[in-house]
Amino acid sequence: MTRVVVVTGTDTGVGKTIATAALAARAAASGERVLVVKPVQTGIGGSDPDVPDVETVARLAGVDTVQFVALDEPLAPDTAARRQGVAIPTVREHVARIREQLTPEAGYDLVIVEGAGGLLVRLDAEGGTLLDIARDLTFALMRADGSPVEVVVVCRAGLGTLNHTELTTTALRAVQVEPAGLVIGAWPADPGVAETCNRTDLTRLTGVPVLAVLPDRAGSLSPADFSSAVPTWFDEVPG
């Protein structure tokens, strides 16, 4: 039975890709064959294109990756596609392609799906979002074999994170998807009182456990150092 983890964020730039790489590296170290899926990537065009998230994950975690759609401008996918004048797949089509990777023939133990931006960023021209992907995968897999989809929410450490994280977890629960855990995407080297309080208050206010705390600039580590450090990030969580 292939496990599915959906990684979303409370906003853009919160550390989803590095958190995805950490989850993938942790699973791969335990012997699981891992695939990371990025349904939509934006910002890969122009004179200074972003490095695709799947390339960052592959470099840090050494796992298989696949990107379904790439768009030039660093905008919400539906906006970027409209400005670029291209048609993009619907969320339903993304879900179908993800489910193709869950078959025994595909051979994966874990499929991690990384979103774009926050939970309600529009991924297609019909208003479909990562929330829809998480919901549709959850109910499809529960009908098929009873296996749940784990949704991990990546959040900031500083001011504003409590509100953003509560909004995200509330949206998930509104469609009967219970978030599995939180990851603090970039813990500062010199945390202030807000960060220190939030580290505990995130769980107290949302009822969702903090699974890992990733240090700021973790993505700049070498692949070997990244993989070596990953277990400590998952162990050093508030009690």
Automatic annotation (TrEMBL):
<keyword id="KW-0436">Ligase</keyword>
<dbReference type="Pfam" id="PF13500">
    <property type="entry name" value="AAA_26"/>
</dbReference>
<protein>
    <recommendedName>
        <fullName>ATP-dependent dethiobiotin synthetase BioD</fullName>
        <ecNumber>6.3.3.3</ecNumber>
    </recommendedName>
</protein>
<feature type="active site">
    <location>
        <position position="38"/>
    </location>
</feature>
<keyword id="KW-0460">Magnesium</keyword>
<comment type="function">
    <text>Catalyzes a mechanistically unusual reaction, the ATP-dependent insertion of CO2 between the N7 and N8 nitrogen atoms of 7,8-diaminopelargonic acid (DAPA, also called 7,8-diammoniononanoate) to form a ureido ring.</text>
</comment>
<keyword id="KW-0067">ATP-binding</keyword>
<dbReference type="InterPro" id="IPR027417">
    <property type="entry name" value="P-loop_NTPase"/>
</dbReference>
<feature type="binding site">
    <location>
        <position position="17"/>
    </location>
    <ligand>
        <name>Mg(2+)</name>
    </ligand>
</feature>
<dbReference type="GO" id="GO:0005524">
    <property type="term" value="F:ATP binding"/>
</dbReference>
<feature type="binding site">
    <location>
        <position position="53"/>
    </location>
    <ligand>
        <name>Mg(2+)</name>
    </ligand>
</feature>
<feature type="binding site">
    <location>
        <begin position="13"/>
        <end position="18"/>
    </location>
    <ligand>
        <name>ATP</name>
    </ligand>
</feature>
<dbReference type="GO" id="GO:0005829">
    <property type="term" value="C:cytosol"/>
</dbReference>
<dbReference type="GO" id="GO:0000287">
    <property type="term" value="F:magnesium ion binding"/>
</dbReference>
<dbReference type="GO" id="GO:0004141">
    <property type="term" value="F:dethiobiotin synthase activity"/>
</dbReference>
<keyword id="KW-0963">Cytoplasm</keyword>
<comment type="subunit">
    <text>Homodimer.</text>
</comment>
<dbReference type="GO" id="GO:0009102">
    <property type="term" value="P:biotin biosynthetic process"/>
</dbReference>
<feature type="binding site">
    <location>
        <begin position="114"/>
        <end position="117"/>
    </location>
    <ligand>
        <name>ATP</name>
    </ligand>
</feature>
<keyword id="KW-0547">Nucleotide-binding</keyword>
<comment type="pathway">
    <text>Cofactor biosynthesis; biotin biosynthesis; biotin from 7,8-diaminononanoate: step 1/2.</text>
</comment>
<dbReference type="InterPro" id="IPR004472">
    <property type="entry name" value="DTB_synth_BioD"/>
</dbReference>
<feature type="binding site">
    <location>
        <position position="53"/>
    </location>
    <ligand>
        <name>ATP</name>
    </ligand>
</feature>
<feature type="binding site">
    <location>
        <position position="114"/>
    </location>
    <ligand>
        <name>Mg(2+)</name>
    </ligand>
</feature>
<comment type="similarity">
    <text>Belongs to the dethiobiotin synthetase family.</text>
</comment>
<keyword id="KW-0093">Biotin biosynthesis</keyword>
<keyword id="KW-0479">Metal-binding</keyword>
<feature type="binding site">
    <location>
        <position position="42"/>
    </location>
    <ligand>
        <name>substrate</name>
    </ligand>
</feature>
